[in-house]
C-alpha cells in the first residue's frame, strides 16, 4: 500500500473514530478520564517541581543567596585574608531571641541581614512592606504575623534587652517559609550568636580553595588529661548546599515510579475498555472487512480510537493540570515550604506529558486492534464470541522471566553507590512480572466458582470467561496499589539516626531550665503550675560530679527500638519524690532504706558495678537498682540523700525544676507557662542574650525524616489513582456483563441480584489487584531503601491492613450502593 492510500486510510479511520466517540458519549468520557488522569497529575507535579526546584543552584541560594562561600567562627578574619582581591562580603546572623507581643513572651528565631545587599538575594522573600533599616525597625515572617496577630506599623518588643521596634515588612526566609522569624538589619544582632560572613568571589577567583580546617585549631584541656580541639572556622560553599546526587536521584525515581505505575495502570484499564468497545463494534468492523477492507485497515479503525481519545485526553489533562496549579499556587508553596519561581514553566515537559497520553492511548488500543484485524468475519457477523485460548503457562513463564530480569537489574544497581533510576526501572519490570499472575488467579477463581454463592459464582465465571480483560483490570489496580505501597514502605523506613534518640523525660513532664529556676519566686512558680495540669513540682539539686558508667550486657530490647541507650549520669540529691519522678511509681522500702543508710539509688544497670555507684574519681557508695521505664536524658540517673552528699564532700548545684503533670499539656498551656519562664529571665537579667524555655517530656517519634513536598504530592496522587483505578475497573466489568444481566432478568432474576453480582465483581478485581499490588510494591520500596545506607525496614502494619482489607471492602460497598438494582432488558443479536 502506497503512502497516499495509507494516509487516506488513516483519515477515514480518524473520522470514523471521531463519530463513534460522539455516539458513545459515556464510554468516550470514561476512557478520556482514564487517559487524562496521569496527564493531569503529571502536569501538576511537573509545574510544582519546576517552580519549587528550579535548579540545584537555586536551592543553594535559599541558604547562601548569591554568595560563593559562607564562613563562620573566630578564625573568619584569617580565612578572609587568604581570599583574592575584589571580594564582596556581608554578614548574616541567625539565632533565637525573646519576642514580646502583647502580654505574651515567646522565644523566636531571628535573622540579622542586609536584605538590600546583592549577596543576600534569594535568601529572603518580601511579602509586604519593605526590608528593615536602622535600629528602630524590624520585619516578621508571615507565619509569625499570623500567629501573633502582627500587622505592618505595629510595635514589637524584641532583643536583649527588650526594645520596641516598628514592623515595616513581612519577610519570609526562603530556606523554610514556615519559620516564625524576626528579621533585623545586619548590624542589629539580637543575641550572642556568632555572625556568618557571606563571600562573593570576584571574576576569575573561582580557583580559590578554603584553607585546611585542621590547620588552625582551638584546643581546651580535659579533666584527667588530654585536650579537645575544634576548627577555628568553618567554610561552606554553594556545592555543599546543593542537593546531592542521592536526593536528586530519589526525586527522579519517585516521579518515575508514580508516573510510570500510573501510566501502566491506565494503559491496562484503557486496553480493557478498548477491548470492550471493539467487542461491541465486532459486527460493524466485520461489515467493513466484508466490503473489501484489509486486516490492517480494520485494525487502524480501532487504533484511531486510541489516537483520537489520547490526543483529546492529553490536551484536556494538561489544561486542567495547569489550571489547578495556578489556582492553588499558595497551597503548593505552603507544602513545598520554599518560594515558587513564577516564571518556571517546563514547556517541553508539558508537551511530553501530553504526548504520553497519545502514546498510552495507542498502546492500549494496540491489542484490541490486532484482535479486531484477525477476527473471523463469519463469526463476527453472526455474533459468535471468540474464546480466549492463551495458555496460563505462557503467562506464568513470561512473568517469571520478566520479574527475574528486573530483580537482577535492581540488585546490581542497588546500594548507596548505585543508580536509583535503574533500580526503579528494574522494580517496574518486577511489577510487570507480578501482574502476569493476574490471568492465572482469575482462572483459579473461575474453577472455584462452583463452591460459591450464586452472585459470586456468576461473577467469577464471567471473569474467567473473559480472563484477559478481567486480568487487565486487576493488573491496573495492582499497579496503583503497588505505587502507593512503595511510597508507604519507603516513607515508613526508619532512620538509624532517629532510632537512637532517647526521650528527655516522662511524656508530659515539664522541665524548667536551671537558669530560669534560679530566679523563680514562689508566686511565679505557682503561676507556671496553674497554667499546666500540674500534679507536683520537684526542684532538682544535682552534683557537680557525675556517675561513672560500666558497660553491661543488656537484653536485646533495652533502650528504644533495641538500640543501646546511654544512661543519664546526673546524680541528684533528694529522696522519695525524686524516685517517684524518675520511675513513675512509689519508692520501694529497700530504696528508702539504702538512702537512710548512706547509699544511693541508681535507675540504670550501667551505673552499678559490684553493688556500688562510682561518682567522680574517688567516691564510691553502695547502690540499690530501681529500674526506670526508659533511658531519660534530662532526669537524674541516680539519687543520694543530702546527708550522704555532705559526708563525701560532694558539691551540689541547682538543676532546675521538674513539674509532674496529670496529662500531656496542650500547646496553648505550654505557651502560657513559657511566657512566665521567659518573663522571669528577662526581669532578672534584661541583657541575657540566650534565654531558655521549658521543655515537655516526650518520646521521640521513630521516624521524623523530612520526606519533602514532592513525596507528599506523589503519595496523594498515587492514592487518588488507586481509587480511580478501582472504580473504573469495576465499572468496566459491570458494563461488560450487561447482556448476561439482561438474560437473568428475562428468566426471572430478582432486581437485587445485579447489585450482588457487581459487588462480587468488585471484590474479585480489587482483591486480586490489592494482593498483587502489595507484593509488587515491596520491590521498589526495597530498592529505594537500599539506596540509603541510613535506613532500615519498618513494616507499617495498619496501612498494610487498610490496603489489603479496607480497600476491597470499600470497593465492594461502593459497587453495591452505586449499582442500579433494576435489571434492564436489552435486545440481543440474532444468532
Descriptive report:
This protein has 831 residues and is α+β, with helices and mostly antiparallel strands. It folds into 4 domains: 1-63 and 247-384, no CATH class; 64-204 and 211-241, no CATH class; 391-501 and 705-830, no CATH class; 509-553 and 563-697, no CATH class. It is 52% helix and 15% strand. The strands form 5 sheets. The chain has a 6-stranded mixed beta barrel. A 6-stranded mixed β-sheet has the order 16-21-17-20-19-18. α15 runs antiparallel to α27 and α16 (454-465) packs across α17 (467-492). Residues 554-562 and 703-707 have low confidence and may be disordered.
Query: Main beta sheet: strand number and arrangement?
Result: 6 strands, mixed, barrel
Mean pLDDT: 77
How many strand elements?
A: 24
Rg on CA atoms, Å: 35 Å
The outline comes out as globular
| Gap from first CA to last CA | 36 Å
Major sheet: order of its strands?
2-3-8-5-7-6
| Low-pLDDT residue intervals, each spanning 5 or more residues | 554-562, 703-707
Keywords: Cell membrane, Membrane, Transmembrane, Transmembrane helix
Subcellular location: Cell membrane
Membrane topology: Multi-pass membrane protein
Pfam families: FtsX (PF02687)
Amino acid at each position: 500500500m502506497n503512502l497516499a492510500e495509507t494516509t487516506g486510510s488513516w483519515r477515514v479511520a480518524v473520522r470514523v473514530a471521531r463519530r463513534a466517540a460522539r455516539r458513545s458519549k459515556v464510554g468516550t468520557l470514561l476512557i478520556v478520564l482514564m487517559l487524562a488522569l496521569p496527564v493531569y497529575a503529571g502536569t501538576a507535579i511537573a509545574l510544582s517541581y519546576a517552580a519549587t526546584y528550579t535548579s540545584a543552584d537555586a536551592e543553594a541560594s535559599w541558604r547562601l543567596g548569591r554568595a560563593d562561600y559562607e564562613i563562620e567562627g573566630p578564625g573568619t578574619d584569617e580565612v578572609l585574608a587568604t581570599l583574592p582581591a575584589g571580594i564582596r562580603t556581608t554578614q548574616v546572623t541567625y539565632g533565637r531571641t525573646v519576642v514580646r507581643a502583647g502580654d505574651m513572651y515567646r522565644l523566636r528565631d531571628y535573622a540579622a541581614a542586609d536584605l538590600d545587599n546583592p549577596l543576600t538575594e534569594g535568601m529572603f522573600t518580601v511579602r509586604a512592606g519593605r526590608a528593615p533599616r536602622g535600629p528602630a525597625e524590624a520585619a516578621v515572617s508571615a507565619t509569625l504575623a499570623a500567629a501573633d496577630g502582627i500587622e505592618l506599623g505595629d510595635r514589637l518588643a524584641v532583643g536583649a534587652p527588650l526594645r520596641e521596634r516598628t514592623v515595616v515588612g513581612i519577610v519570609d526566609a526562603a530556606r523554610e517559609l514556615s519559620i516564625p522569624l524576626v528579621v533585623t538589619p545586619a548590624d542589629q544582632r539580637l543575641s550572642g550568636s556568632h555572625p556568618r560572613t557571606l563571600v562573593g568571589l570576584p571574576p576569575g577567583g573561582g580557583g580559590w580553595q578554603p584553607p585546611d580546617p585542621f590547620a588552625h585549631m582551638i584546643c581546651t584541656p580535659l579533666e584527667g588529661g588530654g585536650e579537645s580541639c575544634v576548627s577555628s572556622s568553618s567554610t561552606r560553599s554553594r556545592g555543599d548546599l546543593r542537593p546531592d546526587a542521592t536526593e536528586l536521584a530519589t526525586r527522579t525515581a519517585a516521579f518515575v515510579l508514580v508516573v510510570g505505575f500510573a501510566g501502566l495502570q491506565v494503559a491496562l484499564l484503557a486496553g480493557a475498555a478498548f477491548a470492550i468497545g471493539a467487542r461491541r463494534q465486532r459486527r460493524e468492523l466485520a461489515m467493513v472487512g466484508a466490503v473489501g477492507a484489509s486486516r490492517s485497515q480494520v485494525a487502524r479503525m480501532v487504533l484511531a480510537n486510541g489516537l483520537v481519545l489520547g490526543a483529546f485526553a492529553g490536551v484536556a489533562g494538561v489544561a486542567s493540570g495547569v489550571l489547578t496549579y495556578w489556582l492553588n499556587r499558595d497551597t503548593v508553596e505552603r507544602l513545598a515550604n520554599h518560594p515558587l519561581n513564577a516564571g518556571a514553566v517546563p514547556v517541553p515537559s508539558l508537551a511530553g506529558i501530553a504526548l504520553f497520553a497519545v502514546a498510552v492511548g495507542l498502546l492500549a488500543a494496540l491489542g484490541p486492534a490486532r484482535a479486531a484485524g484477525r477476527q473471523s468475519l463469519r463469526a463476527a457477523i453472526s455474533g459468535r464470541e471468540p474464546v480466549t485460548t492463551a495458555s496460563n503457562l505462557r503467562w506464568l513463564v513470561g512473568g517469571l522471566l520478566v520479574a527475574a530480569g528486573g530483580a537482577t537489574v535492581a540488585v546490581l544497581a542497588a546500594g548507596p553507590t548505585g543508580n536509583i533510576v535503574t533500580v526503579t526501572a528494574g522494580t517496574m519490570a518486577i511489577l510487570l512480572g507480578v501482574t502476569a499472575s493476574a490471568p492465572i488467579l482469575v482462572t483459579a477463581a473461575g474453577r472455584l466458582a462452583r463452591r460459591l454463592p450464586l452472585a459470586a459464582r456468576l461473577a467469577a465465571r464471567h471473569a474467567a470467561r473473559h480472563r484477559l480483560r478481567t486480568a487487565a483490570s486487576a493488573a491496573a489496580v495492582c499497579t496503583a496499589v503497588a505505587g502507593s505501597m512503595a511510597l508507604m514502605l519507603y516513607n515508613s523506613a526508619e532512620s538509624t539516626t532517629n532510632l537512637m534518640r532517647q526521650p528527655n523525660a516522662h511524656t508530659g513532664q515539664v522541665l524548667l531550665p536551671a537558669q530560669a529556676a534560679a530566679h523563680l519566686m514562689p508566686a511565679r512558680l505557682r503561676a507556671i503550675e496553674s497554667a499546666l495540669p500540674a500534679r507536683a513540682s520537684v526542684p532538682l539539686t544535682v552534683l557537680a560530679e557525675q556517675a561513672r558508667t560500666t558497660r553491661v550486657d543488656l537484653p536485646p530490647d533495652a533502650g528504644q527500638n533495641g538500640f543501646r541507650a546511654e544512661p543519664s549520669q546526673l546524680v541528684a540529691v533528694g529522696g522519695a519524690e525524686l524516685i517517684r519522678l524518675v520511675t513513675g511509681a512509689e519508692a520501694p522500702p529497700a530504696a528508702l532504706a539504702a538512702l537512710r543508710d548512706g547509699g544511693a539509688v541508681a535507675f540504670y544497670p550501667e551505673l552499678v558495678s559490684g553493688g556500688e555507684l562510682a561518682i567522680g574519681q574517688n567516691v564510691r557508695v553502695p547502690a540499690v537498682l530501681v529500674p526506670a521505664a526508659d533511658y531519660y536524658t534530662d532526669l537524674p540517673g541516680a539519687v543520694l540523700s543530702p546527708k550522704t552528699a555532705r559526708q563525701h564532700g560532694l558539691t551540689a548545684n541547682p538543676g532546675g525544676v521538674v513539674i509532674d503533670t496529670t496529662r500531656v499539656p496542650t500547646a496553648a498551656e505550654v505557651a502560657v507557662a513559657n511566657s512566665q519562664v521567659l518573663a522571669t529571665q528577662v526581669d532578672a537579667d534584661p541583657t541575657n542574650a540566650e534565654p531558655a524555655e521549658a521543655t515537655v517530656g516526650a518520646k521521640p517519634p521513630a521516624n521524623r525524616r523530612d520526606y519533602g513536598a514532592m513525596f507528599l504530592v506523589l503519595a496523594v496522587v498515587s492514592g487518588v489513582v488507586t481509587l480511580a483505578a478501582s472504580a473504573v475497573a469495576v465499572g468496566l466489568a459491570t458494563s461488560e456483563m450487561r447482556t448476561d444481566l439482561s438474560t437473568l432478568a428475562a428468566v426471572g432474576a430478582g432486581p437485587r441480584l445485579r447489585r450482588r453480582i457487581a459487588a462480587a465483581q468488585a471484590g474479585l478485581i480489587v482483591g486480586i489487584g490489592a494482593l498483587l499490588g502489595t507484593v509488587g510494591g515491596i520491590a521498589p520500596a526495597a530498592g529505594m531503601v537500599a539506596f540509603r545506607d541510613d535506613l532500615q525496614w519498618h513494616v507499617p502494619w495498619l496501612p498494610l491492613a487498610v490496603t489489603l482489607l479496607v480497600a476491597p471492602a470499600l470497593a465492594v460497598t461502593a459497587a453495591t450502593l452505586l449499582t442500579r438494582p433494576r435489571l434492564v432488558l436489552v435486545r440481543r443479536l440474532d444468532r
